[in-house]
Specification:
5 strands; single chain; mainly beta; five-stranded mixed barrel
Length: 76
């Protein structure tokens, strides 16, 4: 199983929420790649521009994300 994206910080580029397929840009292989995204808890909503933490990567192109913990936030 490829866990290379788990623990990375991404930025929401398409609304992530329950019942939708969002999009998150994640640093990957020297650049940034767009991944389909779902909330890890199946209920949270993350607006465009929010930074999120990748909890799980499902090949080939899907990530499950959650709110960025306070200690990882630049403004906190």
């Amino acid at each position: 199983m490829n866990r290379s994206l788990t623990g990375r910080i991404g930025r929401v580029s398409g609304l992530v929420g329950p019942g939708t397929v969002g999009e998150v840009m994640v640093p990957f292989q020297g650049g940034s790649s767009a991944f389909h995204a779902h909330p890890y808890d199946d209920s949270s909503v993350y607006p465009v521009g929010e930074r999120v933490l990748v909890m799980y990567f499902e090949p080939p192109q899907t990530v499950y994300v959650e709110q960025l913990p306070e200690f990882l936030r630049e403004d906190g």
